[in-house]
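Input.
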Amino acid sequence: MKEISITEIENIKIGQAENKDAGTGCTVILCEKGAPAGLNVRGGGPASRESELLKAEASAQFIHAVTLAGGSAFGLDAAGGVMQCLEENDIGFDVGVTKVPLVCQASLFDLTVGDTFIRPDKKMGYEACKNALNGGNYKDGNYGAGTGATVGKFYGMDFCMKSGIGSYAVEIGDLKVGAIVAVNALGDIYDWKNGKQIAGLLDESKTGLRSSTDEMYKNYDVVENKFTGNTTIGIIITNAKFEKSKLNKIAAMTHNGYARAIRPVHTSADGDSIFAMSVGEVAADMDMVGTLAADVMAEAILRAVYAAETAYGFVSVNDLG
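Output.
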């Protein structure tokens, strides 16, 4: 097994656009010829678009793009810009009079980071898609959907840390599996290899860390209105050949990567979602790919945190202590 860049996986193009001043952005993963895809949602508060397309009973057998964005439900407008850009480039499902691009999206909540009233919109989605078509401009860190990402929000924004978007990919023989994830969790981030907390809820002096789960266990009173500025959204991309029912299972298995690196995870205040996309023809066992995908996703989460830069008053792991 060897590490490769996420951009070394064939048949995908990745573009990003962001408004750094407003603290939000979007990331587009594009497959011009169309690709089978699946989705699994474990969080209690997702914001999504066209997720019904990815159910086994839906007629569509492939999609053309996945958009990851900030802006909460407002940010779902970005997919409209992706559709416009793809239609203008003759990419989509041929319906005779035009081609209809099939674009799925998930959004995270970053409205409390920069400018509440500037969100990913049609214009930003168009820009990100154009960047993808022009060769791609993907970067880990404070870019795209990770521009306004933060972690460790059990006590709200006063004690959270800056996160971002991250990627990780590996190659085993002809098989390639990669992940992209925008990490915007209620919970803390742990190194999945040694169990050490690396980011999340700051202590009262804001010079070190404390455990969100330990804080949760101090009081079991019902909280009627939990802070909901969260959601970790990601995608697994593989050149293994799968149809969407198997990709839905791979997406479900990949959530084990979330569970290894984020604690607590899949809460009612998160909308944790993972897409899975097949962009190649390599024959591979579904369970092997799903197991590998969980490891790859857990590592991508770490990359997202380590690549983040201090911004908007929120410290990154690189500047803590």
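Helices lie at 78-88, 122-133, 212-216, 244-261, 286-307.
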